[in-house]
Design a protein that fits this description.
It is built from 9 helices and 3 strands. With 200 residues, the chain is mainly α. The protein folds into 2 domains: 67 residues, Fe,Mn superoxide dismutase (SOD) domain (Helix Hairpins, Orthogonal Bundle), CATH 1.10.287.990; 102 residues, minor pseudopilin epsh fold. A hairpin with a 5-residue loop joins strand 1 and strand 2. Helix content is 50%, strand content 7%. A 3-stranded antiparallel beta sheet has the order 2-1-3, with helices on both faces. Bound molecules: manganese (III) ion. Manganese (III) ion binds next to helix 1. The site of manganese (III) ion has 7 residues, from helix 1.
Length: 200
Amino acid sequence: MHKLPELPYAYDALGKYLSKNIMELHHAQHHRLYVEKLNAALADHPELLAMPVADLVRSYQSVPEAVKPAVRNLAGGHYNHSLFWQWMSPDGGGEPSGPLMDGLVARYGSFQAFVDAYTEKSLGVFGSGWSWLMPDLSIETSPNQDTPVAEGRPEPILGLDVWEHAYYVDFTYKRADYVKAWWNVANWQHAQERYESDTM
Ligand code: MN3
């Protein structure tokens, strides 16, 4: 069975920027429901229930037709959120350092120019979806719970959930305020580790 992972920090740990209320709803309700519905949808496929969720998402093209929507939406949601909790930290914010910082400056001109470009892409997602920083330092977006990984492509090194459920309780319709706040919790330490393990 697929399992809801623990948050790597307390629900109120990001409180200055993202409230305890929204973190609790997002993790204990939204993410939990993806996991529960996924387990229900895969009840007749024990081999898919036993797979790590990253492998399941990576296998999207080859799973039986009948469970493709569940794998795309529910396993995608479980996988994306499992990453998302790690991409935030109470010790986050600021700037990366080392090769990731060098790479972002080389590609975007400055760290601020990268932040501006990523923010613009995130605000440009129509409806529900995600924005991604890929290991080649390009910025991509996906609708709904899609992920580049389901297309056989690399795992992003950083990502941002721009579904309304991620911000409406704290910021109402103001996605721009949410994205601005989110930069203060972005876990650059974790993104750096992913970048360095992917590219070095
Ligand atoms: Mn979400």
